[in-house]
Design goal:
mainly alpha, elongated
Amino acid sequence: MSQLALIFGSLFGGLAIILGAFGAHLLKKKLTSEQLQSFETGVKYQMYHAIVLLLLGFHLDISATINAYIVYSFIIGTILFSFSIYGLVLSSANNKKLKFLGPITPLGGLFLVAGWVLLLFKFLI
């Protein structure tokens, strides 16, 4: 489980840098300020959870089931939350908004919250 956390933490961190630069330089002229702010929110949350996954990956006891749930919650939540925002913003900028992505963003947020609640629970038991 720690290996999975480290792999996705590294992947999410690297992609956050690439996507942040992409948004700041290439999309700045194409997106409205509101769209750019949404895109940046996706990048920020992706980076926050990349760092958390890396920290967990270095400190997890791989035999505990709760650790798997925490890691899966953060991975699934980051993918659903951040990448649905990217899809919504980019499709909207091209006047072909993928509306089906709208409900996916809060679902991703729920997974992220679940990961944090599970982490708190882990600390309390």
